[in-house]
Amino acid sequence: MKELIHEMLSEKQVEEKIEELAQQLSRDYEGKTLHLICILKGSVFFFTELAKRVTVPVTIDFMAVSSYGDGTESSGTLNVRKDLDEDIAGLECLIVEDIIDSGNTLSRTKKMLAERNPASLKICTLLDKPERRETQVDVDYTGFVIPDKFVVGYGLDYAQKYRNLPYIGVLEFVEE
Ligand code: IMP
Ligand code: MG
């Protein structure tokens, strides 16, 4: 099978949206320090672009969780491969995610972090595929709502490939 990628959101569209989100965050967290939590690996491109554009003081931390294998279906169980380095008690936390699909990964992640007593805990996602939701999750900031397609680029992968594409594209499999 050959893999083809069709552009869905250009680099410019994505970066304009990130600028908008950063402005909104800077207004909403005025006077506070925002603790940004990057969900590795998919969110890393979005995370750094967002963090650079936020004008309130920012601290950052990273965590790696997954419910996906090498394929395109969610396995449903949360696997914490790397936990945060810092304690989040009393911090204004924002989970930065690449995409919300079934919602399973993020709802479990949020529940786990909420138990650590942050001052606040919100979610910012670049992409949302609401049609695929299995677990309800309150998303506070959303870049783009997209249809039920498997997308790659801007951090998102298929079997670890395509993360470095500067745009977001739909992955299609075709017979060779
Ligand atoms: P959920 O638990 O089904 O919401 O899955 C969320 C995670 O699955 C995301 O953080 C991505 O890593 C991955 N994922 C979901 N949809 C896609 C997609 O269309 N392309 C690439 N990865 C995806
Ligand atoms: Mg992810």
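^ inosinic acid complex. The chain has a mean pLDDT of 94. The CA atoms of residues 44 and 155 lie 6 Å apart.
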